[in-house]
Please model this.
Amino acid sequence: MTEFLTDRRTLLGGAAALAGLSALPKLALAQGAPIRIGTLTPLTGSGGPYGPMMVKAVKAVVDEVNAAGGVLGRKVELVSEDDQTNPEAGVRAARKLIDVDKVSAILGTWASSVTTAVAPLCWESKTFLCTTSGADSITALPHQGYLIRTQPTTTLQGRKFGEFAIAQGAKRVFFLSPQTPFAKSQFDNITEAVKKAGGETASLIYDDKKPAYRTEIDEVLRFKPDAIVFGGYTPDTAVMLKDLYRADFKGLKIAFGYSVNQKLIESVPAEVVDKTFMISPSPAEGSKAYEKLVKLVGVASPDPYTTQIYDHINLVLMAIAIAGDASGTAIKDNIRKISQAPGGAKIDSALDGLKAIAAKQAVDYDGASGPCDFTEIGDISDSKFRYEQVQSGKIALVKIA
Amino acid sequence: MTLLLQALINGLMTGALIAVPAIGFSAIFAVLRYPNFAIASYATIGAFAAWWANAVAGLPVVPALAIAFAVTGVVGVVAEETSLKRLRDNGALIVAIASIALNLVLENIIRFIFGNDMKGYDLPLARDLRFGELRIGPQQLQSLALSVAIMAAMFLFLRYTRFGKAMRAVADNPDLARLKGIDPARIAIVTVFLGAGLSGVGGVLIGLDTSIDPLTGYRVLLSVFAAAVLGGLGSIPGAVVGALALGIAEELALIAVPATYRTAVGFVAILIMLTFRPRGILGERAT
Model:
């Protein structure tokens, strides 16, 4: 055991050494320093079923890129945090990623409420943010370009829900949702689509922390709906479905693919959820990037969010490569150069993209979630939707359109 | 009119569910003089213990409830003896804060063991019985019967057994009880066992109606706390009255205000109560 004694001489010496270090040019320190990328996905809370797989996809890409020599000759380091599907926890975790880990980009915020809370931290610190949240309001934030999303907006989704209900012969559509940043816009767009066809709509915003919704269900049934659209997440939607079954509702049920998922189907009696339709933004199944992702994560059909975050990491790494710099600002200024360069080579993974960029080729990335082309404010410009139905305990594909 | 009646019935059902953990919360408060917020995780642990007994081991509801009670009681005692007991001398606030921390720890242990996904009990779901315009679920009736039975058992225990009497003695006047030869440490263990066990059973009753996940107990914590405050902290009949009042208030409020504000009803109830009658409906001591 040596005793640590601090006398004035060593202290002064240490201080001088520190001062000397900080006086060195910054470049010398940064050379060969790893590029840090953060993921902020829901590992717990209502998004809990998705977060771990999302992280796995990002890690697989990072490992692959590092094995091939990294980006700009630097190793890529991944820091993963849990947003707990909760804005408050999300902000805490984002602060750590930004201030302590000094990441260049944060990928994969899932709940719109979390993204809305985290986005200002990102643009203020010039950290690039890629999200899978759908609320319209997100890209309307003054993010100065530091944000892109791969999830289609609620405007688009709401319209699809309304049109689908009408196509199924519904005339009176009820929208049942907890308070989410996209509930209002979702309902407005459903209403627009349904009214156009001469139908009626009504909505109820409920508190998603309750053990039973019997009184809410009474209110829903007083409207005599022939279709109900669920805007909630898995736990509250499960309770709603049960209470509707008890109340003998026999009409059409339409929900988001992320809320009525295999987990929900397994946790409730089969007849409760049977014949429910689900709509979700569709990954680009059959695309090269999608096939690569399937191999990487070893899951036959990765969920939409995993395909989206896979695209986030690919886009960010290629943007860093083409910029020759790993700062959030560099990613912001270059991301569209590799996502939608006119006439660029069609690329489906960062690995190929990095080679093409090194060979000075123009690059147009087409991802696992879709073509990944972004508008001025960071919205995705085109997306397909997947229509599925629960049929005796299994999720069956109806159509992709 | 039907609207009112239906809301009243729904409120009674919800209230009876909340009453069981509220009794546990109040009993712990009465004897140990601190609000134990870890009951949220006790409720979750009970829900998962019963889920295991029912969905994995294939037992019917009542044995599953008994298992949930025993498991949660033991967990509660172990948690109390290892972590909260030492802090009791430092005042109620310190223990209350520690119990919030304990709650987080236990909740995440559940996550480690059972994962984060929703689980449902392996029970058939019945359609509601209809009486004219009114709907009542057989499952709700069963839960109501169970919680009434549990409450009755609790009352009998407190009134007629030695431990029950000793618990009431300690709650009334710890110093006098000690002089009379009652060992407060033993009573504390019994109380925590009962309180945690009841929270666990409450968790199961809530889970029967819905589905369970690691946040099951946390979601009802506010309602349970509000019910206990409303009825008078430390009063067991008060907890029951408070829970029923809160359940009915929450459901009736839905007729007048948007459903989003349902939880706010609980807060408002606490606020009004503490302003005008700080000891609650049936509370005796203003602590």
Notes: Chain B has a mean pLDDT of 90. Chain B touches chain A through 40 residues (CB under 8 Å). The beta strands of chain B are 129-131, 134-136.
